[in-house]
Specification:
alpha/beta
Length: 349
């Protein structure tokens, strides 16, 4: 195939990033169809991208079923994730879908059965697998640079939801749309990174909390009770007896998009962060003294999400691609965190 014809579902803020990333592979893929429930946005983006009027869909099902679309990229709110994945599986259409995998775990179960019956090339949007610092950390762990890994701490902090900013009610605070709050939005990335680096979750305990209990709905002028978390912490034992502590919040003033991890092994420590994505800090003993080195990430670790998406479409299985089962397992862990917080007990996975 000279070019893969891509259909994009969801034309909100993140869609522009995907369009930009896609354009880097213009010789191998082409955006040919778009879908959004907002007709004004659909027309504007369609005009900007030169999409034929007949390929602009207010109904995403029609886009997925269009024989002139070879693969689907979905960038939508959580409440339609499951339905879009189900339609892609039914249409045997390769796809890249936004995280979290589904709104709630119950929606993931029938998708697994559907996928096991008819597997389709699938990628879930855990974009931080493509942060060079995290990929290099994984490489160094696999090379044994830290010896036996014993523990790690992970955090993903943003500040935009803090009380002083008076952010109003939107879909990210609507439980019927999102299922969870910061846990599914940011915590799902921490879960995926832990699985990417260390393996599977085996048991965990958790605490979910809502710091800002009400937010103003600009449409009604009334305060709305918030039923999803904006703070989450949990701790886990993972395969290989690796223990981790996780923290995420939207109320960390001064944090823009701070996703970072510290990894502790028998012979050293690594620090990696989105705030300095092309460097990692390596701490170890040399000649009886502690040495702290800032390492530049090698070029081979600069792998992009769409590079792997294209490889998947071509039939490849690139190392570290977040596939269907990564999305499903992630949703399992999210569900376990909710159950652990609600029951105030340790949950086995």
């Amino acid at each position: 195939m000279s070019k893969y014809r891509i259909g994009l579902i969801g034309l909100g803020g993140m869609a522009q990033a995907h369009i930009r990333w896609m354009s880097a592979f213009a010789d191998r893929m082409e955006l040919v169809a778009v879908s959004d429930v907002n007709e004004e946005v659909l027309a504007r983006v369609g005009d900007q991208q030169g999409i034929a009027p007949s390929m602009r869909y207010s109904n995403y099902t029609a886009l997925i079923e269009d024989p002139n679309v070879d693969a689907v990229v979905s960038v939508t709110p959580n409440n339609v994730h499951a339905d879009i994945v189900a339609h892609c599986l039914a249409s045997r259409k390769p796809f890249m879908a936004e995280k979290p995998f589904t709104r709630v775990f119950e929606e993931a179960l029938p998708l697994l059965a559907q996928y096991e019956q008819h597997p389709v090339p699938a990628m879930i949007g855990f974009t931080y697998r493509f942060t060079p610092a995290f990929r290099y950390a994984r490489e160094l762990i696999r090379e044994g640079k830290l010896g036996q890994i014993r523990s790690f701490s992970s955090q993903y902090l943003q500040g935009w939801g803090a009380p002083q900013y008076n952010v109003g009610y939107n879909w990210r605070f609507d439980k019927s749309v999102t299922g969870t709050g910061t846990l599914g939005d940011l915590g799902s990335h921490m879960i995926d990174m832990a699985r990417f680096l260390f393996g599977e979750f085996e048991e965990l305990s958790a605490q979910l909390h809502t710091i800002v209990p009400q937010r103003l709905d600009s449409r009604t002028g009334e305060q709305v009770k918030i039923e999803v978390d904006d703070f989450a912490s949990f701790q886990a034992r993972m395969s290989g007896d690796v223990h981790g502590i996780f923290l995420t919040s939207r109320n960390a003033i001064g944090s823009g998009n701070q996703h970072e991890i510290s990894i502790y092994g028998d012979t050293g420590t690594l620090h990696a962060s989105t705030e300095d994505p092309n460097k990692i800090v390596w701490i170890r003993e040399e000649d009886g003294q502690l040495a702290r080195t800032v390492l530049n990430v090698p070029k081979r670790c600069e792998v992009t999400q769409y590079e792997q998406f294209l490889s998947m479409l071509e039939g490849g299985q690139p190392d570290g691609l977040p596939g269907f089962m990564d999305g499903y397992r992630n949703q399992q862990v999210l569900d376990a965190i909710i159950r652990a917080s609600d029951s105030k007990t340790v949950v086995q996975l």
